[in-house]
Amino acid sequence: MLIGEVARRSGVSARMLRHYESLGLVRPTGRTEGGYREYSGEDVRRVFHIESLRSLGLSLREVGSALDDPGFAPAELVGDLVRRTRERIAAETALLTRLRRIGAAEPAGWEDVLQAAALLRALGSKSAGTRQRAALASVAEEPVPVEALVEAALSETDPNVAGALRWALARSGDGGPALLAEGLGAPVAEVRKRAVRALAGIPGDGATALLRNALTDSDTAVRGCAALALGARGVADAVPALVDMVVEEVNDADAADALGALAGDPASADRIATGLAGRLADGGTGPSARRRLAQALADVPGAVAARALADLSHDEDRAVALTATYILKLRAAR
């Protein structure tokens, strides 16, 4: 079979067949009287084998080893091909994401495209300083698509950069909460906590509703972040979680401050006092927890809080009793 016929049957150009021959991958077994290459059936089968292996991503050098090396281990090469393919897919996916984000910014010209590309690249930099400057620039200069800011905020580990990203998100428009809602469903608790912190800086009912949902999160730190954020917004639904934080000594000082602020609303004051007093009635509450509860009651007005403090002033633990007595004197002097 001459080279032209092989090319038609295999789909491999005559030029590529000559290249294969120069590399020693497949050599025609004969020549015609006129000196033309003549391929045997076995030669043609080898051409098809070469193309099959190339379709898996093997280089021509790897193809030669696969076909000619008796000790060739296909499992190792296939594993390497899987790894390389995954890396290529990840790179292509990252490129596709970047292109979509640049398109979402609706650039008016190449200058806008270049600026958006530079900011997106900076957000993914290994340098924390570069990422922080990019987050700040996303507000001061050409805006970055909000989904890029959300992705960066959910993955950021540097506290300074994270703060800059949350600041940028709070000024990015209305799209942030819906995208951060996906972060609240992440399997990793740290990601969910970052989503809550980002939502805490975004005003509006949408963010508040999502923070309420986070109060039922399985992770204590996530619930605590949500409770503090809701307490700052004056949402009384956070009271039970804030009381738990006081008892469990998880950001208890911040939780007590939030309860004190919420207690400024008369409708919430009795609910807070009842919640704190209820934990005091729990026989399993130790002295240190009772002392923290007494301190939390200091800024809660009303008769319920006063009765709870009076009971604590007779506590069997001297430190608890002295704390409650001191708080009662301060309340009486107001």
Give a verbal description of the structure:
This protein is mainly alpha-helical. Among the domains are: 3-72, Multidrug-efflux Transporter Regulator, Chain: A, Domain 2 (Orthogonal Bundle); 238-334. Helix content is 72%, strand content 1%. The chain has helices spanning 3-10, 14-23, 41-55, 60-68, 74-104, 110-123, 128-140, 146-155, 159-170, 176-184, 189-200, 205-214, 220-232, 239-248, 252-262, 266-280, 287-297, 303-312, 318-333, and strands spanning 30-31, 37-38. The chain has a two-stranded antiparallel sheet with strand order 1-2. A hairpin with a 5-residue loop joins β1 and β2 (37-38). α16 packs antiparallel against α17 (287-297). The longest helix is centred in the first third of the chain and has 31 residues, at 74-104. It is elongated, with a radius of gyration of 34 Å. The protein starts with a helix and ends with a helix. The mean pLDDT is 87.
